[in-house]
Amino acid sequence: MNEEAKIISKHNLDVSSLDKLANDIATRLNSNVEYGEYSKGENGHNFIALGTITKNESGIFSTLYNLQNDSNSNYDFVLELGEEAKLIYKDMISVIPE
């Protein structure tokens, strides 16, 4: 059986709004972030893009999902960085290292 390590740490990200969090992450990582939320539709969950923060010309985007209104979620935001996902709570961040 494989054990999965999980790191949980306090953070000082600006989570006062989705766009402020996206801008904070994009600035710290010098990256591009598309942000939005999910809506439940007939075909399951659909991502609704609400904005984009562009900090470089790489064309590579991370995706930030707002899950604060999702009653099935224990966390507030999910940041997808390629194959990696960070679970962001109001004052904590959870990282599952590969």
Compute the number of strand runs. Answer: 7
The N- and C-terminal alpha carbons lie at a distance of 16 Å
User: What composes the largest sheet?
Assistant: 7 strands, mixed
**How many DSSP H or I helices?**
1
As a whole number of angstroms, the C-alpha radius of gyration is 14 Å
Mean pLDDT: 85
Class by SSE composition: mainly beta
Strand residue content: 35-45%
Strand order of the largest sheet: 1-7-6-5-4-2-3
Global shape:
globular
Low-confidence stretches: none
Share in helix: 10-25%
Q: What is the string of SSEs from the N terminus onward? A: EHEEEEEE
Layout of helices and strands:
Layout: E1 7-10, H1 18-29, E2 32-41, E3 44-53, E4 61-66, E5 77-81, E6 84-88, E7 92-95
Structure in words:
- By secondary structure, the chain is mainly beta.
- Helices cover 12% and strands 45% of the residues.
- The protein contains 1 helix and 7 strands.
- A 7-stranded mixed sheet has the order 1-7-6-5-4-2-3, with helices on one face.
- Strand 2 (32-41) and strand 3 form a beta hairpin.
- The model has no long low-confidence stretch (mean pLDDT 85).
